[in-house]
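Person: Please comment on this record:
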Amino acid sequence: MDYKNVNDLCDMIRQTSFDIHKYLHHGHLEKVYENALVSRLTKMGKDEHQYPLQVKDQDGTVIGDYIADLFIEDILIIKIKACKTIADEHIAQILGYLRASNIEHGLLINFGSSKFQIKKYILN
């Protein structure tokens, strides 16, 4: 998928997530927001799933496993939070997911604040 389409996908997810936040407000667990986003994206015909990532040491030895919250259309990793505000460790998580998976684009979405928060990250 080209750059313009990734941006279009991000815009669609941004609007959908904002609509979810407007409807559910803050105060739910991350899984509730994840399920809501999966439900709405599925109805829009988007392919999404949880994404297993292996973290490897310099010599290729697997040293850990992570599962990204959502992987959309095989080009975009989404990390979902439900906390007061996005913290440095949340940014480190999404950047770690992107590096470990060699995926270029990621969204960090926080549904837990009274003010909706979403940030896009690009590795290049």
